[in-house]
Amino acid sequence: AIRMTQSPSSFSASTGDRVTITCRASQGISSYLAWYQQKPGKAPKLLIYAASTLQSGVPSRFSGSGSGTDFTLTISCLQSEDFATYYCQQYYSYPPLTFGGGTKVEIK
Amino acid sequence: QVQLQESGPGLVKPSETLSLTCAVSGYSISSGYYWGWIRQPPGKGLEWIGSIYHSGSTYYNPSLKSRVTISVDTSKNQFSLKLSSVTAADTAVYYCARHPIGGVLYFDYWGQGTLVTVSS
């Protein structure tokens, strides 16, 4: 199984900050990577697929990059509604589909 | 707009079988797409359980494969999950979700989730 490792596991940031979350795959996954946002008590929401394609309706302050084994999710100007936990998921090789452990973005 | 809604018992006894159903509205399952189940233990991350195509072909997580059955009922526009021989480790919020067309297995629509607790 492909292991997905996210870093950091959590951090604090302020509204307006530019933040970057990293996801590393244990082997190459081309661009078969998705990012999700999850708020407490809610289902995950798809933000980005194919490593860098923004899902319809997602604000343009979110962006994704990377290919192979290293990927990043960037929020260019953090808004109050962006404080949440973010997960990456690979869909290059399955079963199993695998998720990263999550990165919690907290208010500083 | 596609909507998914999980339903089933919120409490299951150890060694018994967990059974959940996902009702789909706004889209006909028989028209295509893969449909999946994901779970999330309290305070933890996401774990994929398995996915099914409208024709009935399935993918399962190898770590759960011996205990999982996912089926589809196109007449009711729903799909189901059965997880046998449950233990406390199977306590989680269970989500159903849709994979987008084209066989790419990320998830574009999710149900709200349902908490299943395994306890005697």
What would a concise description of this structure say?
Chain A has 108 residues and is mainly β. Chain A is 0% helix and 49% strand.
DSSP strand count of chain A: 11
The ordered string of helix (H) and strand (E) elements of chain B is EEEEEEEEEEE
Number of helices in the DSSP assignment of chain A = 0
Please indicate the percent range of residues of chain B in DSSP E strands (runs of 2 or more). over 45%
* Overall average pLDDT of chain B: 95
Which tags fit this structure?
heterodimer; A: mainly beta; seven-stranded mixed sheet; 0% helix; B: 120 residues; mainly beta; four-stranded antiparallel sheet; 11 strands; 48% strand
Structure description:
The complex is a heterodimer of chains A (108) and B (120). With 108 residues, chain A is an all-beta fold. Chain A is 0% helix and 49% strand. Chain A has strands at 4-7, 10-13, 19-25, 33-38, 45-49, 53-54, 62-67, 70-75, 85-90, 98-99, 103-107. With 120 residues, chain B is mostly beta strands. Chain B has strands at 3-7, 11-12, 18-25, 34-40, 47-53, 58-60, 68-73, 78-83, 92-98, 109-110, 114-118. Chain A binds chain B through residues 1, 32, 34, 36, 42-46, 49-50, 55, 87, 89, 91, 94-102, and chain B through 36, 45-48, 50-51, 59-63, 95, 97, 100, 104-108, 110-113.
What is the element layout, followed by pairings?
The complex is a heterodimer of chains A (108) and B (120).
Chain A (H helix, E strand, L loop, with lengths): L3 E4 L2 E4 L5 E7 L7 E6 L6 E5 L3 E2 L7 E6 L2 E6 L9 E6 L7 E2 L3 E5 L1
Chain B lengths: L2 E5 L3 E2 L5 E8 L8 E7 L6 E7 L4 E3 L7 E6 L4 E6 L8 E7 L10 E2 L3 E5 L2
Parallel strand pairs in B: 2-11
Antiparallel strand pairs in B: 1-3, 3-8, 4-5, 4-9, 5-6, 7-8, 9-10, 9-11
